Amino acid sequence: METAAKPSNPSFAARQPCCSLANFPSEATQAEQIAEKFKALADPTRLQLLSHVAAQGCDDVCACDLTEELGITQPTVSHHMKKLVDAGLVTREQHGKWAHYSIVPEAFAQLRDVLDLS
User: Fold this and answer.
1) Distance CA 68, CA 49 (A)
2) What pLDDT, on the 0 to 100 scale, is given for residue 2?
3) Three-state SS across the chain?
4) What are the angstrom distances between the C-alpha of 3 and each of 6, 8, 10, 74?
5) Is 26 or 9 the better-scoring residue by pLDDT?
6) Which of 116, 117, 115, 118 has its CA nearest to residue 37?
7) Which of 5, 22, 43, 94 is most buried by a 10 A CB count?
8) pLDDT for 61
9) Is the dihedral of CA 70, 75, 79, 82 positive or negative?
10) How many CA atoms within 13 Å lie on the side-chain side of 33?
11) pLDDT at 83
């Protein structure tokens, strides 16, 4: 009578999963929304912009301050901030000729939940 082949690594059967995927989105719509957030975060300029906005806490940040701080042009700031707004990571309010941006805390709570791979 033949016995089943054993894995070549003796500890294979004793391994525990490295992480739980319990918080990953199970529905296509939710997965798409979260993927859009990650895509928006996948650009170094957007990460820098987001870092400057987040550093202000609950206060909003004028686009004019972002151009000076990062040494990039206003059209570049507008382009990248639009991607962050569209992804739901920041909000935009118009004050006169300047746009002001602030963080959406709930969006980051959602990303933290997804990345909590305990």
Assistant:
1) 11
2) 53
3) CCCCCCCCCCCCCCCCCCCCCCCCCCCHHHHHHHHHHHHHHCCHHHHHHHHHHHCCCCCCEEHHHHHHHHCCCHHHHHHHHHHHHHCCCEEEEEECCEEEEEECHHHHHHHHHHHCCC
4) 9, 14, 16, 70
5) 26
6) 115
7) 43
8) 93
9) positive
10) 13
11) 96
Of 75, 99, 84, 87, nearest to 48 by C-alpha is 84
Instruction: Enter the tokens of residue 93.
Output: 């309010």
Query: In this predicted structure, what is the pLDDT of residue 58?
Result: 81
d(CA 66, CA 80): 11
9 backbone dihedrals φ, ψ, rounded to 5°: -95, 115
In terms of residues, how long is the chain?
A: 118
- Region 55-67: what's the mean pLDDT? 90
**Tokens read off for 118:** 């305990």
- Confidence label for 116 from pLDDT (cuts 50, 70 and 90): confident
How far apart, in whole angstroms, are the C-alpha atoms of residue 33 and residue 30?
Answer: 5
Q: Whole-model pTM?
A: 0.74
